[in-house]
Design brief:
Shape: elongated
Distance between the termini: 31 Å
Helix content: 40-55%
Strand order of the largest sheet: 6-21-12-5-11-10
Number of strands: 31
Radius of gyration: 40 Å
């Protein structure tokens, strides 16, 4: 602005009407840089007297303005720094006067809304290089208008670094995000370019406690991570490292926000610090219990897992403690990176508990009692083993090479528990107790039989339309899991029990037994053995005909065929049908030739069967569904040892068929094996004799997999599930009477503590899960945190996975450790504890608190 513009604007200002009760106008013209000091002689304004302040004429000036010429208009030129209020002789005059600036700094301050904050002028002038560009001023204006010199400096830093806000943590994060090489870091180089580097380093030191002669972002990141870790780790474990206990709250908050915003970059940074400072060697010496609260470094999870596996290998692990440990780590940072490894540990804990509960082994003397014990209890061990290998396969697909040897060490232990203890002892007890009844009758007495029970008792006797879903090789433990999921995901009555599968427990015999039949027998053909039902082949192509012979309104569907059909086409297939058989095959088809396929095949089967259920209910208007199988299976991930495999010499004219677990031979022949045990096939009314490999022994066959087998008489093969599913419609009297029973709801979480005042920044809180997870109460993941009235976070975010199924409420309690952010709190204002259901099915619960903590933030002055 030139002197002519200044004169023009001043003339306009003095010519404006005076405010009410004012008799004159005084304008203080501030020009600390003396841009117009040599041009004052050009200023002539009518009826206005010019007064120049020199810094030594304060008394004279005040006398002139207030005593000598109380009615004269004055332009007071101030080419000196504005004094502090206590030292300002003219402060009272200024309060009823006007101000004027004509320099570029004033123009910028007016543009940026800073004109009312004269204390900011020196900072604006100091950073003249930054403000001397329209685009940079535009970036500055995106932030909240600063009111103090410090906040002005922070705002400039935020603008040049690209930070989201003008908070110190955001600025530091923006610089770190630019890379740890200072020469290549554009954000840091921008700080240097605009003379902000010293202020940035001062701010970093004040907030994090990091001070170095030669500033290094690499060292800063390490310092922040160590300081954050020190909040929950004893100082003795961090001895010799550069960190700040006094600034640990800021550093912890910083790491927490970094984790929320960009967990992958934090992960890589933490990994770099681990390698640089050899933290694995350091933390390996830390007792397991002292590592459990630490979440900053990814290697902590790996060390915890290593220590656990070693304890399990040495038989030093307590199952209850293992499960609680996994539960604790589920909500820690980086859990997702090793969740499959923790999954293996969790299933191992269940297996160890089962073994402890049955430490005396299996010694039941009655076959029907063993059967009952298996269907009520023992089958759980098969489930734990399957889930273990589901997690183990995830470990193999996405391996953590630091844990690769450990997970294989754990797998060897699990294989020993399952194969050498559970299968060996249970099958030994079962084989000895059941061999007489199997040899004489071909089945266990007083146990329902698949062939003589299923169609007659479930299908034929029903007065309503019946849907039968047959999933090949869905053994009892898989069906039990299906029941749990159906109970939680549908409005239904669901029950399960086990019937005895027909011998041999293979598909063609089991599928035949599920059809209406009076007589089942094997028939040898050129192509091999086929199973006949009442004189008709029971091959897949004939099953529809056999069903229609018993009930003309019957149809047969294959899930793979109808899955891709439109709704109308599917519906047309079952229209008018009273009996609908739907065949499904995933487990048997995928598991025979790939030992790792079974767990995933079961998972897919459960998904498919639930989809079939929805299809029947929503498209076919069905309410009654029976889920069953043709047979079960024996499965071990480890290849069977040679002593569990036997050779045979059965390939003779009397042999009808040989499988991995059975043989069928004409009675006129003699079997040449001292290992195989006879099983009566008198149900066939044919002159044939069955033989089974006892316990878990496999019969050697060329080109045949040995891990996934069936055909024998083990409980895992013979116990065939029958799941009775009845959909309860919402308009039925049953539903209206028992709505609470059928409606599925998420379990609720409540605060146990009664105090509603916080006096410390780090504190524990206790919660409890109101209901146990059950048929109609589902598990929920809750996020829990504190926020202010504006819903801004003031604490870290903790999680509770409310999945407890214990009836004892003491076993459904949780204890969380919270950390409030390092900021000022107003004890008179409300803050809120928020309990948020991550699924969104429940509205967040907000509980009012007061926070009564003195402000402890370290100040800093640029």
């Amino acid at each position: 602005m030139d002197i002519e513009q200044v004169i023009t604007e001043l003339n306009q200002r003095f010519s404006m009407p005076l405010q009410e009760f004012y008799s004159r106008r005084i304008i203080f013209w501030y020009d600390e840089d003396r841009d117009f000091a040599d041009k004052l002689d050009q200023i002539h304004i009518n009826d206005v007297e010019l007064l120049v302040l020199t810094g030594s004429n304060n008394f004279e000036a005040k006398k002139l303005l207030t005593r000598d010429k109380p009615d004269t208009n004055f332009l007071v030129y101030c080419p000196i720094m504005v004094p502090k209020p206590d030292d300002d002789w003219l402060l009272d005059v200024k309060l009823y006067s006007e101000s004027f600036r004509a320099d570029i700094i004033s123009i910028w301050m007016k543009e940026l809304g800073l004109s009312n904050y004269s204390s900011l002028r020196p900072k604006v002038k100091k950073y003249r290089k930054f403000f001397n560009a329209k685009d940079r001023r535009a970036k500055f204006k995106r932030f909240t208008t600063p009111t103090t010199p410090n906040t002005l400096t922070l705002t400039i830093m935020a603008a040049v670094t690209g930070a989201k806000t003008a908070q110190p943590s955001e600025i530091i994060q923006a610089v770190i995000d630019g890379g740890l090489d200072l020469e290549q870091n554009t954000a840091y180089q921008a700080l240097i370019k605009y003379q902000l580097e010293p202020d940035f380093i001062l701010m970093v030191a004040s907030r994090t406690g990091f001070q170095e002669m030669n500033f290094s972002l690499e060292n800063l990141v390490a310092h922040i991570l160590f300081s954050a870790a020190s909040k929950f780790m004893s100082e003795r474990y961090l001895e010799g490292l550069d960190y700040s206990v006094s600034n640990s709250s800021f550093c912890y908050d910083f790491v927490f926000e970094w984790l929320r915003e960009d967990d992958e970059s934090l992960y890589q940074a933490a990994r770099g610090v681990e390698d640089r400072y050899q933290l694995v060697n350091r933390f390996l010496k830390v007792p397991l219990t002292d590592l459990l609260e630490t979440t900053v470094f990814p290697c902590v999870n790996e060390i915890i897992i290593e220590k656990i596996v070693d304890n399990i290998s040495l038989d030093l692990a307590d199952p209850d403690k293992l499960e609680k440990l996994v539960e604790l780590r589920q909500t820690s940072a980086w859990y997702d990176k090793v969740s499959s490894y923790y999954g293996c540990i969790n299933q191992t804990a269940k297996m160890l508990r089962f073994k402890a509960q049955h430490s005396t082994g299996f010694h039941t003397t009655e076959p029907k009692v063993i059967w009952k014990e298996y269907t009520e209890d023992y089958y759980h061990m098969d489930t734990y083993y399957r889930h273990y290998h589901d997690s183990y396969q995830a470990c193999l697909r996405n391996p953590n090479m630091k844990l690769d040897d450990k997970i294989k060490q754990l797998t060897a232990k699990v294989e020993g528990i399952y194969i050498n203890w559970f299968l060996k002892e249970l099958s030994d007890n079962w084989s000895k107790m059941s061999e007489d009844e199997l040899e004489n009758y071909g089945h266990i007495l007083k146990v329902e039989q698949q062939r003589s029970f299923f169609y007659q008792n479930y299908v034929e006797s029903s007065t309503n339309r019946v849907f039968v879903v047959i999933s090949d090789a869905m053994r009892y433990e898989v069906a039990a899991e299906l029941v749990e999921q159906l109970q939680q995901e549908t409005r239904s009555q669901v029950a399960i029990h086990g019937v005895q599968g027909i011998f041999p427990t293979v598909t063609k015999f089991g599928m035949a037994a599920l059809l209406p039949n009076k007589e089942i027998y094997p028939e040898k053909t050129v192509g091999g053995l086929r199973v006949m039902v009442d004189g008709q082949s029971s091959d897949a192509s004939n099953r529809k005909m056999i069903l229609k012979a018993a009930n003309p309104d019957s149809c047969v569907l294959k899930y793979d065929d109808i899955r891709d059909l439109t709704r109308d086409k599917r519906t047309s297939l079952v229209k008018g049908m009273k009996v609908v058989y739907i065949y499904h095959d995933q487990i048997d088809k995928r598991s025979h030739h790939d030992k790792s396929a079974m767990p995933a095949a079961v998972d897919d089967t459960l998904t498919d069967l639930k989809n079939i259920t929805k299809m029947i209910i929503n498209e076919f208007s069905g309410t009654n569904i029976y889920f069953t199988s043709d047979h079960g299976f024996l499965y071990t991930y480890s290849n069977p040892n040679e002593h569990t495999k036997i050779s045979h010499d059965l390939d003779n004219s009397y042999t009808l068929e040989i499988g991995n677990r059975y043989a069928i031979q004409a009675k006129t022949g003699e079997i040449d094996s001292c290992f195989l045990k006879p099983v009566s096939m008198s149900y066939t009314c044919r002159d044939v004799q069955g033989y089974t490999a006892p316990e878990t022994i496999r019969i050697k066959k060329s080109g045949s997999g040995m891990n996934f087998v069936h055909g024998g008489t083990s409980l895992q093969e013979m116990v065939v599930p029958v799941v009775e599913f009845h959909h309860v419609r919402s308009d039925t009297k049953e539903y209206l009477r028992n709505q609470e029973k059928y409606d599925t709801k998420p379990v609720e979480l409540e605060l146990l503590d009664t105090s509603r005042e916080l006096r410390n920044k780090i504190f524990n809180m206790n919660f409890y899960q109101k209901d146990a997870v059950s048929a109609n109460r589902t598990a929920v993941t809750y996020s829990i945190y504190f926020e202010d009235v504006n819903k801004e976070l003031v604490s870290d975010v903790q999680q509770i996975i409310a999945d407890k199924s214990n009836e004892d409420i003491k076993e459904r309690q949780f204890r969380l450790l919270f950390s409030l952010r390092d900021q000022a709190y107003d004890s008179l204002k409300p803050y809120y504890l928020v309990i948020k259901d991550e699924s969104g099915l429940q509205a967040p619960v907000r509980i009012e608190f007061r926070i009564n903590i003195p402000m402890s933030m370290d100040g800093f002055d640029f």
